[in-house]
Amino acid sequence: MPQQILDWQSVQGTPGSMGDNHVRERPGGIGRAGRPAFDLVTSKLMRPLVRPGTVRRRSLVGRLANGDGRRIVSVVAPAGYGKTTLLSQWAERNGQAFAWVSVDEGDNDPKVLLTYVAEALDAVEPVGKRVFDALASAASSVPGSVVPRLGHAFSSMTSPVVLVLDDVHMLHNRECRAALSVLADHVPAGSRLVLSGRAEPPVRLSRMRAGGTLLEIGPSDLSLSAGEAAALLRNAGMALGEDVVAELHRRTEGWPAGLYLAALGLKQGGSLGRTAVSVSGDDRFVSDYVESEFLARIPQRQRAFLTRTAVLERMCEPLCEAVLDLPGATATLAELARSNMLLVPLDRRREWYRYHHLFRDMLLAELHRLEPGLVPILRRRAADWCLHNGLPEEALEYSIAAGDVDTAAGLLGELWLPVYQQGRVATIERWLGWLDDRGGIQGHPMAAVGAACMSAVIGRPVEAERWADAVDRWQRGDAAWPDDPTAEAWAAVLRAVLCRQGAEQMRADADEAVSRFAAQNIVAPAAAFLQGLARVLCGDLEGGDASFADAVSIGERAAAPEVLAEALSERSLVAMARGQWDRAEVLAGQAGAVLRRTGTEDALVCAVQARAALHRGDVPAARQQLVSAQRARHVLTYAQPHVAVQARIELARVHLALADLAGARTLLREIDEVLRRRPGLGTLAGEAQELRAQLADQRSPSLPGASALTDAELRLLPLLTTHLTFGELGEELFISRNTVKTQASSIYRKLGASTRGQAVARARELGLLEG
Amino acid sequence: MGQTVRFQETLRRLAIIDERFIEDQARLGLSLAGVSALDPKTAALLQVAASAAIGASAACLEWSTALALAAGASEDEIADVLLAIAPVAGLGRVVAAAPGLAAALGYDIEAALEELDDR
């Protein structure tokens, strides 16, 4: 997939590598095949330790450990019911391997969530390079590649594992939820998938209930018995009379967090009886409860520390000092860490902590009530500290939370490329969406150029054009266009990618990009590649080949595999055009080898390899390349019209040579659709015309089979593997339910299937789907 | 997925017009190759015309349209079929057929009408 345009390694580092930080790191042993693309927050993969003094939940742990072969465990209860503690105790109890992921807001990017899942499983038993390859690619399909590969790896694990996803209620991204549902079907015998959170997990519970594969733990299971409540209070250092314990137990209905907070409050010298409300984790009562039972009783200084640092996702001493603007705050953190169970350590060095989620929610509510004006100021300080301590992504998140549009836009301009290269498209989209809603892209060229380039190469043409229009408006000079030479260079790349003004203008734009990058000493193989393509489109085969040769050598030096593979493919096409087939074969082979190493697919590279295979008479290899191209071609839209048309022309030639008229005609229709929007594609228009004439001469009919699946159908196909309904799929693809139904019927017919399951199975047999 | 119930399988395959199934089970020759005097594209366009004229279901329209595309007909030619048959088939039939044809061409009329502007 021509994400190669963005396959650009310059002098910049990846966001996580900017600082030395003990929370984010790249795990994995030296020489391990697969690696996560981005730096992981390792504490998310650590099972929280059970603190001494925690009430043992023996019978519940027993139920979990026994399990009766039920593969899915759902633990659903409001905050503070001890869900995490229970699971930790289970993990501690026996020798069974646990893979643990603590889910948070940032996991609403399927590539991020599933990287953590893969990483957690990998620590138990290697899941293989293919899984991490798919995760690291921005253009790989989540339902089409990532989920099937991960599902396969999970289901073929030889040792039993308990995969825990804690706080799954944080997941609202539909792709993430759909992925969990599919993973739930891949739990191998003897293993478990545990989904724990405040709301029902996003899997088909009713079906699992009926099938007897589900073990459910709810609030009534989790609430403490009177005996356990007494143990909790005793362990918290409270010597209370039996009647007081009974009263507390009655009032909290066995809600552990409530009991603990009450105990803390009493410890601070409070007395029982101030509140008559009964609480059991119901949000409406929680903050009242905290206020009356806990916060009102602690010293003002400590109270301010707690509420103000609650703006932090996680904290260390210097960060707390910076946020509070109060030297000496460190002592309070250390003291809290020793005494308070509501502060969770995140690393073994005891540098980073976070508040228990429930506790933080309460503290934040209190802060908003008492000092609402202070909230953005605190967040701004946090952003500032993170920015100066090698945590630019965290800085961006705090800026967003603080509502600092300009700071966020500036950071996004720096971060989009490395984050894109890590495959985290949904994360960038979330940032962009936030900025866009606040008009934050205006005045920040790099953010808009980045948004346009990214949208173009992942196959979202409408967004690409919208962002590109914004870039054009600045460059025409109506708004204040800040002096940003890098953005100028990228804007030229963007114009060449979109090729909205035809081949000649593309050539000028690509030339401009090359010289602008050169002037800044930035290594950008994409610019050389586009220059070569523009020259070929203008009929300059010689000059084109020279630029492609540049792109190849820069691509090799800059370790930019996608641009390297495409440039090699283009050189192969030039050789074919000159009749130098030996050379063409070698170049095509090199291109294929590059992509095999990265585990990605690219329709143009497939097309060139298919042509080479056909020329040497290897029909099976040619067919295989055609199928791979079907998986990859949907990202080639009119947002990169040249590669989109060129790849399809080459593919159609192979279909035609294999007497597959329906397949060739499907491609020709897509070519015509792109040409209708972008008529000025130079020599490609003539090649398309030639193909059209050849197809018109063919009169023998052929029934449309799998090769005639259209672009839209190929986009729908991987989503058929999920449990989403047609209506939900329509929302996902921005089309009506009716259209989904029509496309699905057409897919079934072309695959000779009469059910969704058969269609998916058949597509897998044919290699159109992985898994 | 549970056992396949034969009548359900039959109905499903009919509903999506599974060509091989229909040729085998209903012994209907769907191949256009048998029509020798007409080229396949013309024959396929005539099928579209007839489907629209008799008020065939959306699935039938979608199927015959897909066949016409595979036989090399262009989107414009297929849309023009409706114009060509309107005087004989009547406006009602033609209007009723339009959404089905559009769907087969990958054009979402419903969404297009709903959108503020079609770019």
The dominant shape of chain A is globular
Distance between the termini of chain A: 20 Å
Report on the biggest sheet of chain B.
none
Model regions low in confidence, pLDDT < 50 over at least 5 residues of chain B: none
Helical/strand content category of chain A: mainly alpha
The quaternary structure here is: heterodimer
**SSE string of chain B, helices as H and strands as E:** HHHHHHH
What does this molecule look like?
The complex is a heterodimer of chains A (771) and B (119). Chain A is mainly α. Chain A has 37 helices and nine strands. In chain A, helix 21 (445-457) runs antiparallel to helix 22 (461-475), helix 23 (485-498) packs antiparallel against helix 24 and helix 25 (525-537) runs parallel beside helix 27. The longest helix of chain A has 18 residues, at 581-598. The radius of gyration of chain A is 29 Å and the shape is globular. Chain B contains seven helices and no strands. The interface between A and B is medium-sized, with 34 and 36 residues.
Write a brief structural summary.
The complex is a heterodimer of chains A (771) and B (119). Chain A has 771 residues and is mainly alpha-helical. Chain A is built from 37 helices and 9 strands.
Topology summary:
The complex is a heterodimer of chains A (about 775) and B (about 120).
Chain A: E1 24-25, E2 40-41, H1 58-66, E3 72-76, H2 83-93, E4 97-102, H3 110-124, H4 129-136, H5 142-155, E5 161-166, H6 174-183, E6 192-197, H7 205-211, E7 214-217, H8 219-222, H9 226-235, H10 242-252, H11 256-267, H12 283-293, H13 300-309, H14 317-324, H15 329-339, E8 343-345, E9 353-355, H16 357-370, H17 374-387, H18 392-402, H19 405-421, H20 425-437, H21 445-457, H22 461-475, H23 485-498, H24 503-519, H25 525-537, H26 541-557, H27 561-577, H28 581-598, H29 603-615, H30 619-632, H31 641-657, H32 661-677, H33 683-697, H34 711-716, H35 726-733, H36 737-751, H37 756-766
Helix pairs in contact in A: 1-2, 3-4, 3-5, 4-5, 5-6, 9-10, 11-12, 12-16, 14-15, 14-17, 17-18, 18-19, 19-20, 19-21, 21-22, 21-23, 22-23, 23-24, 24-25, 25-26, 25-27, 26-27, 27-28, 27-29, 28-29, 29-30, 29-31, 31-32, 31-33, 32-33, 35-36, 36-37
Chain B: H1 6-15, H2 19-25, H3 40-53, H4 58-70, H5 75-89, H6 91-104, H7 109-114
Helix pairs in contact in B: 3-4, 3-5, 4-6, 5-6
